[in-house]
Structures
1.
Amino acid sequence: MEKMNYPSFGRNIESKNSRRSRTYLGIIVFLILITIVVVNKAGQVNLVSPMAESNSSPNENKSEAPPTNIEVTRNLDLEGLEKEIAREVAKTQGTFSVYFYDLESGRNFGINEQMQVMAASVNKIPILAALYYKVAKNELDLDRIIVPQAKDIRDYGTGSIQYDPPGTPYSLKTLARLMMEKSDNTAAYILASLVIGLDDIQSLVESWGMTQTDMLSNKTSARDIGIVTIKMYRGEITNSALTREMIDFMDDSDFEDRIPKGVDSQVKVYHKTGDEVRTVHDAGIIDLPGKPYFLAVFATDVVDATITKEKIVLISRIIYENLK
């Protein structure tokens, strides 16, 4: 076979193309590496201080204006309200406890309201009440500084303290705020177990008439939570200045996806949610001007948490539309 002699310029063109290809490849690799670094850093920022309950993000949970497509029956009397809510509860999987109390008239109704259930984070309400009760008695100082030790950190569930640097100091007031606004489990543990004492909290809740609340096993009922929350709102736990501060920690939390979502956005809701496996709760005071009321909706044996939350929103909306 005849040997072909390629012109030298052909080899020069080939080498230039190769260099150009290698240059383009290098640029592409560089851009890919930059993208990976940026994405990785963004992920690290999200891990620093998550403040979401369970599997939800704070932004997803923040309350918006009530959905306009919710149609509810209006002009119901108290008996009609109870029947309407009972019908809605019956249509949803799970076991519901509902307790409504009108703070002006004292009218109330309940559905399984005295059924003892796992409280989840709702029992942070009596912890808050016990703290401010003792502050008013000069037994505790809200400015006292606590530096959590490694053994104090609850490295599960909600809260930001578990992600803060070791040795970070917190005042008791800051722990109270984080416990309610961020549902911080470490803050709740420190206040309940190390600062106040579970035995002291138990004695207080019993003195307040909460006969179905067990702080050690974390059990309560919708009616019991109503008792303590109403006392807090009415200023029966601590003095007026501390009452204002205490209940303000229960407004505009990171978890506004249930009762608050069923009322108009300008209405304050002082409440606490609770979430556990197959458990979805919310309870609080809806500060409707001239017509404040308490509402608790607890759901256990939950099959679908999203559907259950939507049902709590609906129950909240039914009551709100018939009271406003």
Note: Strands lie at 95-102, 108-111, 117-118, 145-146, 170-171, 219-220, 269-276, 279-286, 293-300.
2.
Amino acid sequence: MTDSKMKVLTSVAIALLGFGVVWYLQSSPAATTSVSSHPSQPQTTPLANFSETLTLTGHSDSILAVAISPDGHTLASVSGDKTIKLWNLDTGKEIRTLAGHLDWVNSVAFSPDGKTLVSGSADKTIKLWNLDTGKEIRTLTGHLASVQAVAISADGSTLASGSWDQTIKLWKLTTGENIRTLKGSRDIVNTVAFNPNGKILASGNYFNSSINLWDITTGKQINTLKGHSEAVSSLTFSPDGITLISGSWDKTIKLWNLTTKTEINTLTGHTDKVLSVAVSPDGKTLASSSWDKTIKLWDLAIGKEINTLTGHTNKVWSVAFSPDGKTLASGSFDKTVKVWHVASRL
């Protein structure tokens, strides 16, 4: 898809009937207190010395999301070409292509046991795939507009989906049953993320640039975090669940203390929209990707930029760490996935 086409699409706004939802195509998604995920434990330096080892090609359109399997051996990429590709991370070879969506595939997530892949699409559906066979298990319907984000709780029981229809739906992963619909955001939902214990869901909004926190048990909104000045594009939690990290189109990354519900740091350095954020499993390193075609690595404890990875030739829409934190994957509008491996610690 050309940049000119993207500019046309991003300017489109269509009023939906019923819920009064606003449709638009978003190209598809303080204080300075330092943060320490484990203050009582000896601190190690964050992983920073990543170098590009693989470039994966095969998609015919922009790559909108990437994810790495729990065993670290398989990478999934989803694209504007309506497909999902599975790659062997050890060899860089394509394993298979999953086809079935009728429009852009915007988001992807592995189940914690690595047996199921979930994809969300602009065709308003969510599909569940059997990773052993590559076959579709089921299609979940109910959203009235593009499904922008999917996330799975750490225990593998609950799937969350965020949509342009201004709702978040919770599903039972094993059966596909719609448990409940969260409607309080009154805004297009760009991103969703479960906290580590699966009891809180965070969602990021487009127009009001806020973050909503939800109690999964009751379905009630419990807090709203405000501070970004443009769309919230990506959310992730620190492994201990104390810190929420948000990336925004305002070019910044914000860190939030969930105990006090306050902003504790703002990271600046990207020169254009921040599109994705991911935290290494040890909680030390933050990766962010941007419209500026770069990936930045940050020491999360002190909020310092420690490396910038370049190589993509268009906006980098998604980043994901492997379970051991030594591999980073990035997906770009240049239609490639790049795989980066760490050489050593700083």
Note: The chain has one helix and 30 strands.
3.
Amino acid sequence: MIVRPAVVSFAAAAVCIPLFKSLARRFDVLDSPSALKEHGRAVPYLGGMAVAAGVAAAMAGYPGAMPDELRSLLIGTSAMLCMGLADDLRPISPYVKLLFQFLATTIAISGGLHVSIHVLPPAVNFILTYLWMMAITNAFNIIDVHDGLCSGAAAVIGVGLLLVSVFTELYDKTFVTVSSAALVGGTAAFFLANHPPATQFLGDAGSLSIGFLLAGLAIGESYTPGHSVGLLVPFMVFILPLYDLVFVVILRLMKGQSPIRGSPDHVAVRLRKMGWSDRKVLWSLLGLGAAGAVLAPGVVFCPLPYAAFIAACAIAAAVGIGAALARIRVT
């Protein structure tokens, strides 16, 4: 259930990567250097299309009937892929992107996929679903500012969701396991072309659709078999994109800037300003993400005092690192 979709997706994506790279060059779908983009050459987009092809190939062999939750999530993901591709071809307003994300989330919810915290009213759960889906989607778009970071983070988070789904037996979450494995395979294949120095970029088609799919799969998990601290598990699994999102939004608001407008204030950019190499930045951040993914299942099942201690340490470390990073000048 895990190996087959991962292998199929990896192989299909590996075959499609050079094809889409060639198409990007032929039709001039390139990411050129600018004030906010420090790569020194034009790099082909459409990497996200190769990942999508890999995931689609794996999901074509889904075991049994596909549940409504997964079907609606994949339709919403496809909508995000198309919107992101349109943005790669011709930039779209951030507000239009947010509208598309809202509509895609509505599609996912229509199939029964939504946050379910039993102590909260249904209306609050639906609001939390919109906030979570749109936050994670944009978080992945935000971290796609460094070679290999978005594709690597997606693979790591996919593994984290796999670990939680394998160790959680409260519900039949086959769709989470199979879909996560497929996404791990596709993003791992693309990571080989995307790590520093990148020869191809995901583009918005990739970062937005990958973030949307992972956000939905996270909702399909169960995190609280023993205690409510388990609700922090998805935040630990998604620590890398969420951390950069919160960090950037807070800094921009403190400066009186719009949180949805681009600026060179990301964690990866600040680490590069410290003199770190591209590879050091990448592997350090992926190591942080891997630590969160590995520790997450332990928080679900370990006794409450230990779970609370792990969560408290993670929060304290995040605040301390953020304070240190905020002091680094990026302009």
Note: Residues 3-326 form one domain.
